[in-house]
Amino acid sequence: MQYENSLEFARSMDEKDPLKSFRDRFHFPTFHENKEVVYFTGNSLGLQPKTVESYIKEELDAWAKFGVEGHFLAKRPWFAYHENLTQKAADIVGALPEEVVITHSLTTNLHLLMVSFYKPEGKRTKILCEAKAFPSDQYALESQVKFHGLSTEDHLVHVSPREGEELIREEDVLTKIEELGDELALVMIGGVNYYTGQLFDMKTITEAGHKVGARVGFDLAHAAGNINLKLHDWGVDFAAWCGYKYLNSSPGGVSGIFVHERHAESPELPRFAGWWGYDKETRFQMEPGFKPMRGAEGWQLSNAPVLGMAAHLASLDIFAEAGMNRIGDKRDEMTAYLEFVIDTISEKNKDRCTFEIITPRDKTKRGAQLSILAHGQGKSLFDALSSKGVVADWREPNVIRIAPMPLYNSYTDCYRFGQYLEQAIQ
Question: Which end of the chain is more exposed for a tag (fewer CB within 10 A), N or C?
């Protein structure tokens, strides 16, 4: 398609957008003096679906009416509330229902999964991860290594971009996996890197890890609801994701767990157990000795956090209606248009500054996020951009992260961002 950096072109794209009606189903921030902000931080916190209030109120009303009996008498009984989310979440990540459960928070779930799938034995002790992983992942990995009495210097291996490059070459990941061989216990990488927006080939990485006898897991915080995932088909051992970024499900909201079906009947896997992961048919007999539920449900610990799950369900219902295929199609088209707008502004203003998109240009290697290096500009550019009503993200020393969201962003948002970016140049 031949793009144009004009308001008329952007509006014409919006008119043809099959998902355009979904924009009206979200609350846009009203804190700025501008009537309508350009909200491009769905990769940090998604906007609130307008239905969230009624979904949560339903459970508050059930709590008021039934008290503890809401576990069984509520419209959606709390005893099995997580089951309302399972199929919808499985559809988003490309999994079987028994492979998915919604529970806890992201880093909690990563720890619980690594307890089961990081088992250093003999010479097979090392974890491979990407450099510049999100800090919470880094801390989790370091603490898991230390928990087993090992040193992070010797047993936590990072794959970094080559000198002078921003992205990690996938051949370097595969080479390092092969090089570590029978010393490698676990590959644990962010499916989409939070800083650059680079999407890794999870299928190929999983195959390479399994070839040398390692387990393979992914943090999908920046992938779930953003990327068209096929976790079951790719053979991934485990994964976890949060619900509050691309999935629009409340600040610090509930998290998802994926455990491949080949581990569904593996009670021998070590785990930090809790009673909500116990076989639900006999859970209330409260017998000693943990008997896990089949599949991912066996990694639950405590009662369902119903209010957070209600917010998540409101968003998942919207995803189910829109469908990940349509969301993915618009993601690629809108991100490509935003890329064109940024390139146009950069070329026009190259005597003052340039904007380098460090996210891969290949749409198969990225999702909705674009990370922009602002050459010749500092944080004052970002501050000026913010003052005009753009909600984006700044990372030192000079990177702006933006993410146009297919469910609620428009092509007109992309055009307006370009106009504000040019006006903000110092």
Answer: N
pLDDT, block means (10 residues), the chain with 426 residues: 96 98 97 87 98 98 98 96 98 98 97 98 97 93 98 97 96 98 98 97 98 98 98 98 97 97 91 92 88 95 95 98 98 98 96 95 98 92 95 93 98 98 94
What whole-number distance in Å separates Cα of residue 118 and Cα of residue 111?
Answer: 10
> Do 144 and 248 belong together in one domain?
yes
The three-point CA angle 237-281-82 to 5° equals 55
Which of 260, 292, 321 lies at the terminal end of a domain, its last residue? Answer: 321
199 & 103 share domain:
yes
Q: How many other C-beta atoms are found inside a 10 Å radius of the C-beta of residue 353?
A: 16
Q: Specify the pairing of strand 370-375 against strand 354-357.
A: antiparallel
The phi, psi pair for 65, rounded to 5°, reads -80, -40
Domain-located, residue 58: no
The letter for the amino acid at 125 is T
The CATH number covering residue 289 comes to 3.40.640.10
- Residue 239 one-letter amino acid: A
Examine the domain organization and report whether 343 and 410 are in the same domain.
yes
Q: Which positions ≥6 away from 28 have C-beta within 8 Å?
A: 36, 37, 39, 47, 408
Calpha distance 398→417 (Å, rounded): 18
What is the b/e burial string over 162-175, where b = at least 16 CB atoms within 10 angstroms of the residue's CB?
eeeebebebeebbe
Does the reported pTM lie above 0.85? yes
300, 321, 342 - which closes a domain: 321
| Single-letter amino acid code for the residue at 408 | Y
**Rg of the Cα atoms in the chain:** 22
Instruction: Give me the pLDDT at residue 407, please.
Output: 98
* Residues 102 and 85 sit within 8 Å (Cβ to Cβ): yes
